[in-house]
Amino acid sequence: MPKANVTFEKLGVTVSVPAGTRLIEISEKVGASITYGCREGECGTCIMKIVSGMEHMSERSVLEDKVLQENMAGSSHRLACQAQVLGGDITVKA
Amino acid sequence: MNATPNAVELAPGTHWIGALDPALREFDIILKTANGTTYNSYCVRGDNGVAIIDTVKASHAGEFFTRLEQVARYDEISTIVLNHLEPDHSGALPELMRRAPQAKLYISAKAQLMLKALVKTDDLQFNVVETGDRVELGGRTLHFFSTPFLHWPDTQCTLVEEQGILFSGDVFGCHFCDPRLFNDKVGDFRFSFEYYYQHIMRPFREHVLEALELLEPLELKTIAPAHGPILRDAPQSYLQRYKQLAAPLLHNEVGANDKSLLVFYISSYGNTALMAQAVAEGAETEAGVRVSLYDLQASGGLPFVDLIEEADGIAIGSPTINGDAVKPVWDLLSSLAVIKVRDKLGASFGSYGWSGEAINMIEDRLRGLKLRVPVKGVRAKLIPNEEEMQRCRDLGKQLAQHLTGNLQRRVISMSELLSQEQSHA
């Protein structure tokens, strides 16, 4: 199964995960300081910054795109509950 | 003065047209208001138009419109500025927009979503402004300053350049109701000013300091906040006081490069206390970390908030009683809303008799407060054995290494993470 390596910059931890894993599944287990709200891509609480490796993330859905825009998040932000890692190396600011 | 609500002149053509709420005893559930509050709004007349700065709580709209009508006609209003969109300042906005449909509305970028949530119309027109943007009223110029997070994301200040009057929104305000309005005439409001800062602005002190950099160079003759007295006597002294209040409380108690780890615990039979001691011992083996140990049983809760504000990390030990952490722990954790704790390091540990849920619950709460919780907490059934005591020392050591940055970057697989989770549960 393809793997992705997700590095949590502030925690100093890299987690090797199966491709397709959602960021929230990893960040919750690793103890990152991300707050979660609805977990369904609606509230915008779990916005996180992708430091590098955005090209290894799933495309934004229409819903995620709308919520990010409403929260004036830049192009380097994603919703942890929606974004999936697809492979390669990804670093997040958390 | 309340019998006939009068507009009050601040400077030629500029009036206070707000509302008094002397009967209010509690504001927004969280603040005591021993003599009520005011909702300050202002009217600025230029040669080519009239601006209204902020409105009032909906329940006090009548008083606001009565005062407004004494100094302007609705068809003269060209400009409405909202420095902050909380309902106590935007409550009368929909009615004002209905009465003055030609007026252009000016808000900060971050106020847009809040405005849409407050004014439920689809064709809402507004202008977004930021620092440096100006609106000319003819002989009067409104100059906007973006001052976010004082105390909401949307907050901004508006200066009348020709008169040196700063409409500051909630910053420099307080809940103090005195119809004499001006700081050189009202009663002693120093307590209210400080109380307001401590409860409203304190979590945002970094943003307070940023805003002061922006505002200090201005030649201010008057600070006109959205609550409480208008500060026309020595306005700069209030900026200085904010600077003092926003500075760290505990200068140099910990060496400039040292990190501070606070270990809090509460213990029924001394077992969690033993674990706390071990966490502290483990942390102390790491150079550059100063460790402090506190028993929550001896606290009223409040003094620890100041310590935590200055600390880099906190570890909290609690027994589990009836499936929960104990009340002094929740009291401590619920008192942290008035300070910034985001990204501090957090951890939990404790002894238990039956099930030991407290540790996970505390960790969840710490994460909810946006602390980093990178090291799994330690649980021990009743009296900790040597292996469990060693795990406590390891916990302390790892926390200290996280603080100093000496922790080797870990690489871990998802399946290892999951198995850790299961062994912990």
Task: Give a topology summary.
The complex is a heterodimer of chains A (94) and B (425).
Chain A: E1 3-8, E2 13-18, H1 23-30, E3 47-52, H2 62-70, E4 77-79, E5 88-92
Chain B: E1 8-11, E2 14-16, E3 19-21, E4 26-27, E5 31-32, E6 37-39, E7 42-45, E8 50-53, H1 61-71, E9 77-81, H2 87-90, H3 93-99, E10 104-108, H4 112-118, E11 127-129, E12 134-136, E13 141-146, E14 156-160, E15 165-169, H5 190-201, H6 205-215, E16 222-225, H7 235-246, E17 259-265, H8 271-284, E18 289-295, H9 302-310, E19 313-317, H10 327-334, E20 345-352, H11 358-368, E21 378-381, H12 386-404, E22 410-413, H13 414-424
Parallel strand pairs in B: 8-9, 9-10, 10-11, 15-16, 17-18, 17-19, 19-20, 20-21
Antiparallel strand pairs in B: 1-2, 2-7, 3-6, 4-5, 7-8, 12-13, 13-14, 14-15
Helix pairs in contact in B: 6-7, 8-12
So, the CATH homologous superfamily of chain A?
A: Beta-grasp domain
Assembly context of the chains = heterodimer
Shape of chain B: elongated
Largest sheet of chain B: 7 strands, mixed
CATH architecture classification of the largest domain in chain B: 4-Layer Sandwich
Tell me about this structure.
The complex is a heterodimer of chains A (94) and B (425). Chain A has 94 residues and is of the alpha+beta class. Chain A has helices at residues 23-30, 62-70; strands at residues 3-8, 13-18, 47-52, 77-79, 88-92. Chain A has a single domain (3-92), classed as Roll (Ubiquitin-like (UB roll)). Chain A contains 2 helices and 5 strands. Chain A has a 5-stranded mixed beta sheet, with helices on one face. Chain B has 425 residues and is an alpha/beta fold. Chain B folds into 2 domains: 8-246, Metallo-beta-lactamase, Chain A (4-Layer Sandwich); 259-424, Rossmann fold (3-Layer(aba) Sandwich), CATH 3.40.50. Chain B is 32% helix and 23% strand. In chain B, helix 6 packs antiparallel against helix 7 and helix 8 (271-284) packs across helix 12 (386-404). Classes of the chains: A alpha+beta (94), B alpha/beta (425).
